[in-house]
Amino acid sequence: MEEHPELMPLLTVAGGPMRGASFRMRAEIQVIGRAPSGQVVINDPHLSRRHAEVWLAPEGPSLRDLGSTNGTWLNDRRITEVERLSDGDVIRLGRTELRLFDPGVALTDPVGLSFGPSRRDVRPTVPLPLATPPGTRR
Fold it and tell me: What is d(CA 129, CA 131) in angstroms, rounded to the nearest whole number?
């Protein structure tokens, strides 16, 4: 997968001081925090210097809190151990919100990214019927 970085999961800052910034996950551990020595430096005073870490494990994207003061939250739930991430997950660190996009399993592309015609041409195989409230006629 290293040969195709566009297929690596992408974490995008969806809210907070660095909204719009993004980074690709890798197999190597990436420390997220305020410390300039970290791999993912986020300028948010509510983050610890070494707040959390992410990496791409063989089972999929993973997240761990590093004993941060304000905690690491996954989909509004404070985490206390290693968590596996899924496409669309929201991670909150301090006042920063990150959203995961995993092109290997995503049904849609994030705004501004294109992965070629094979992704754009995905169509449902069976049309879904329109819901009609009970007691009404079409």
Answer: 6
Which helix or strand (DSSP H or E) is residue 74 part of?
Answer: strand 72-74
**Amino acid, res. 59:** E
> Looking at the whole model, is its pTM more than 0.85?
no
* Residue 30 φ/ψ, nearest 5 degrees: -120, 120
Helices (H) and strands (E) in the chain, counts: 1, 11
| Overall size of the chain counted in residues | 138
Q: Are 35 and 51 in contact (CB under 8 A)?
A: no
Nearest to 119 by CA among 111, 101, 133, 107: 107
Nearest to 93 by CA among 66, 127, 115: 66
What is the sign of the dihedral through the CA atoms of 26, 66, 83 and 76?
negative
pLDDT per residue over 86-108, tens digit each? 999 999 999 999 999 988 776 55
3-state secondary structure of 7: helix
Give the CA distances from residue 11 to residues 22, 32, 116, in Å, rounded to whole numbers and listed in that order: 5, 11, 20
Phi and psi (nearest 5°) for 9? -55, 145
